[in-house]
């Protein structure tokens, strides 16, 4: 079955960086686009970034454009989110999701990111 497992979360200082990873299994990874999302306490889940199956195109939410970069390694079945210039408001649980026919159809369990001094 499809399984997505995020890692790389933790505590970062404002202005710092973190790199999240999402390991995929149970399907042909390079057939599908992938995405990252986050959910802060008391807020709805927010889309952050999406990458096509071939990594030729990416799309970002305005809130993270220029600070976050999505990438993937189809040989390793992994997708990444490089987060730079972190702000306290980036504190949230971060999720990866598979994107298929306009739907985010499978989700990981999430990894906590806390930005605080």
Provide key terms for this protein.
0% helix, 117 residues, four-stranded antiparallel sheet, mainly beta
Number of strands: 11
Mean pLDDT: 97
Helix content: under 10%
Strand content: over 45%
User: What is the ordering of alpha helices and beta strands?
Assistant: EEEEEEEEEEE
Rg from Cα: 13 Å
- Helix/strand-derived category reads mainly beta
Distance between the termini: 40 Å
Any low-confidence stretches, pLDDT <50, length ≥5? none
Largest sheet: 7 strands, mixed
Helical run tally: 0
Note the overall shape: globular
- What quaternary form is this? single chain
What's the gist of this structure?
The chain has strands spanning 3-7, 10-12, 18-25, 33-39, 46-51, 58-60, 68-73, 78-83, 92-100, 103-107, 111-115.
Plain-language structure description:
The protein has 117 residues and is an all-beta fold. Helix content is 0%, strand content 54%. It has no helices and 11 strands. It is globular.
């Amino acid at each position: 079955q499809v399984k997505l497992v995020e890692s790389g979360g933790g505590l970062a200082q404002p202005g710092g960086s973190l790199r999240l990873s999402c390991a995929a299994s149970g399907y042909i990874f390079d057939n599908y686009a992938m995405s990252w999302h986050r959910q802060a306490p008391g807020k709805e889940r927010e889309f952050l970034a999406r990458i096509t199956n071939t990594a030729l195109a990416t799309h970002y939410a305005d809130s993270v454009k220029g600070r976050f970069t999505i990438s993937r390694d189809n040989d390793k079945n992994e997708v990444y989110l490089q987060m730079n210039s972190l702000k306290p408001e980036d504190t949230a649980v971060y999720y990866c999701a598979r994107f298929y026919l306009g739907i985010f159809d499978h989700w990981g369990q999430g990894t906590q990111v806390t930005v605080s001094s």
